[in-house]
């Protein structure tokens, strides 16, 4: 058996048929798991997908004692952000491949919940995750702001904050490695955030509740926009090649936004839109969208129904 490291796991030769009772007795008292290579032990612990479960594995094998702190991927599903933060403080690896944190329950009723989440985010930044997923599955009674630190090594960042929680951007530093950014139910200033992401390639926005949408990103190549509320837009997308827009209802501000995307994304190749089931090819709103697409014959356009995914165009 070959491990990820390239080392091979060699099984011991079979024991002779006769006269092996004493030898078998000695082997039965040994901890054979402890003799396995460390990378194999880490692979077993990683399959638990639980730092707490990996820590409890020390009761099975002494070689697993404290080994969980060197796991490359960690998942947390917790109601206690401070407990997660204290657990992250024990990590011994210089960096993580993946950190996935899902916070839930009624801790958000505490007056200092925003401080707890902010402290957790700073703790997550210290372990330098390459891929970071933060989900808050609870609507707080009061929308206190949450501090977002710079994740200098993170290339993939997903923030899903139920209730459109306000996010305060870092006062210094940049997201220098960030290439993919997913924002859902976030109250965040895109106009100030995107200049801090010089290498951003993919931007996915869902349920962004803001008055003004400002997207200035010379490095952006793929832009996905789901149902949002906006009153004005300011867009600069010099290198954008692929755009997806979901949940169009044919409103005037949506049509205006579509015009801005097509006008500003000068190298756009593919535009995919899903529209509300209330819009049909005979509807005036559809005619508005269709007329805009005809003005840009060099862009490959696709229009689909939201529920059935029926292709309406071309």
Describe the SSE topology:
Layout: H1 21-28, H2 38-46, H3 51-56, E1 73-78, H4 81-88, E2 96-104, H5 113-126, E3 129-137, E4 146-147, E5 156-168, E6 180-187, H6 190-193, E7 202-206, E8 212-216, E9 222-225, E10 232-236, E11 242-248, H7 252-264, E12 270-275, H8 284-294, E13 300-305, E14 311-313
Helix pairs in contact: 4-5
Instruction: Write the H/E string, N to C.
Output: HHHEHEHEEEEHEEEEEHEHEE
Helix content: 10-25%
Strand content range: 25-35%
Radius of gyration of CA atoms, rounded to a whole number: 26 Å
Structural class computed from helices and strand pairing: alpha/beta
The coarse silhouette is elongated
- Low-pLDDT regions: 20-29
The description of the largest β-sheet is: 12 strands, mixed
Mean pLDDT: 76
How many runs of DSSP E, i.e. beta strands? 14
The helix tally amounts to 8
Protein name: F-box domain-containing protein
InterPro entries: F-box-like_dom_sf, F-box_dom, FBD, FBL15-like, LRR_dom_sf
Region (Disordered): 1-32
Domain F-box: 33-76
Feature tags:
28% strand, 12-stranded mixed beta sheet, two-stranded parallel ribbon, 14 strands, 314 residues, elongated
